[in-house]
Amino acid sequence: MPSPSATDLAAAAAELARGALVAFPTETVYGLGADASNPQAVRRIFEVKGRPSSHPLIVHFADAGELDRYAQDVPDLARRLAEAFWPGPLTLVLPRSRQVPPIVTGGQATVALRVPAHPVALALLGAFGGGVAAPSANRFGKVSPTLAAHVREDLGADVDLVLDGGPCDVGVESTILDVSRGSAVLLRPGGLSIESIRERLDIEIRGPSADGPRVPGRLPAHYAPSAELVIAALPELSERVAAFLARGARVGVLSPVLDAARTGVTYREMPKDAAGFARQLYSGIRELDRASVDVIVVVPPEASGLGLAVADRLARAAAAKGGPK
Ligand code: TXA
Ligand code: MG
Prior knowledge:
The protein is of the alpha/beta class. The protein has 2 domains: 201 residues, DHBP synthase (Alpha-Beta Complex), CATH 3.90.870; 92 residues, 3-Layer(aba) Sandwich (Rossmann fold). Helix content is 31%, strand content 17%. The protein contains 10 helices and 14 strands. The strands form 2 sheets. A 10-stranded mixed beta sheet has the order 7-1-2-6-3-5-4-8-9-10, with helices on both faces. A 4-stranded parallel beta sheet has the order 11-14-12-13, sandwiched between helices. Helix 7 links the parallel strand 9 and strand 10. Helix 1 crosses helix 5. The longest helix has 17 residues. The site of magnesium ion has 3 residues, from loops.
């Protein structure tokens, strides 16, 4: 497993301090980081990603005890969640403190905050000593990176430095809970399952309301490969694949099993369990995209545990119908 040296980490922290963009591993996906207190540096994130400035960023920091540096009027519920699950794949949306510049939050009065669990992320954030605004290190609307090589493929010279921490362990983005109004509203299912939150804390978690803030992860079409993505249940896999092949399409299959042995498809075998599937979801999609298939047929795990985040990302990718390119 690659691991940046103390010198690499100090150099990366210095890059952040001078306003550069540093991609770094987290346990969920790679992030494209900039000093959250530097509006020019944050502006470059939006430019490089091609992301509309109205879509807010997550601020990452190393020490959960510093929550009040970035948020104010923090409800007790948020403190309990932070204590139970930070460092970890949970993002909390809270009223922002004046320390956070408006460009980070797309002008909203709330800010998304997370203490990631990856040792390289924690070491970088610790060495830097401040908040790092970071979206996933991919172009807007595309599949998130779970390897340093994905970041380099996607962003090339637009990123000043890439820290390589090996493959991301969780593989899908963090779970986002809006706790800014005292109750917990799920804005994005992710790397921390609802079941594991409920196991530890006796809290109610509601779905998002229609008048909630706009979140790009909640746009119907997002997380899109270049190929068209189609979701299938295992019993219908053969039939769906046969229909695409009959039309002359090049077909990729992302599934734990390929029921009827089939020639003429590019097969990427996936783990049967939801957590394993989530871990390999984006690298699997990228592999099939690289094989230049026209359509990717996916047989997803059950939509519980991490399977809920997998189902969410697949539904968005399917809605994109092979775009944006
Ligand atoms: O796992 C993750 O969360 C990764 C790693 C790098 O930490 N980051 C990530 O960032 O997925 P991004 O920018 O791709 O997605 C962040 C999501 C977006 O959907 C954004 O709209 C939402 O968080 N968000 C940020 N600030 C918000 C706010 N104040 N209110 C509601 N949603 C917010
Ligand atoms: Mg993203």
